[in-house]
Amino acid sequence: MTNLLKLFDEAQAALETGAAPLLDTVGNPAGACSVCGCLQFWQMPDKTWRCRVCHPMDSQTRQAAITLTLAGAKPTSPIIVLDEVRIAIALKRACDGLLLSPDELRAELDEGDLTDLVSGALTPDALRQVAQALALMRFSRPKDSAEVERL
User: Fold this and answer.
1) Cys bridge to 94: 8, 9, 28, 127, which one at CB 3.0-4.6 A?
2) pTM (two decimals)
């Protein structure tokens, strides 16, 4: 999870600065994306190369873009990467200001919860309420068995 948040922060910085991949002498990408490690790129004619994961193509771009897949590339699903980034952002926001980390919140959720989060069935407000409840439960538990018996 921490690596995913770092990936998101690096991808956001790359988007803001317009970072481009390292190019060879011909002007084609010479290696993996420095942000996410992807070996698949695209460009519009006479424009800079962009990573397919960090800079997903929209439907109009997809029809006109030139694509390049470097040797050794495994099929990647930008959808899965983007879903993981969305989950990481939602968990980070849900835990903001709480004594609960995004990793701890994720550990309490099952795959169905994460699927619901991506689909929108689990809203950010509902996730925040879950995080608040978990943080409250964690810090209001009795310390020892004697304290439990008194309750």
Assistant:
1) 127
2) 0.45
Over the stretch 52-77, which tens digit does the pLDDT of each residue have? 877 788 878 888 888 888 877 655 55
Q: Which of 127, 125, 134 is nearest to 113 (CA)?
A: 127
Other CB atoms closer than 10 Å to residue 38's CB: what's the count? 21
- Taking the CA atoms of the chain, what radius of gyration do you get in angstroms? 21
- Secondary structure letter of residue 109 according to DSSP: -
Q: Which two tokens stand for residue 139?
A: 């810090």
Query: At 40, which helix (H) or strand (E)?
Result: strand 40-43
CA–CA distance, 87 with 65 (Å, rounded to integer)? 29
Residue 43 backbone dihedrals phi, psi, to 5 degrees: -155, 150
- Average per-residue pLDDT in the chain? 76
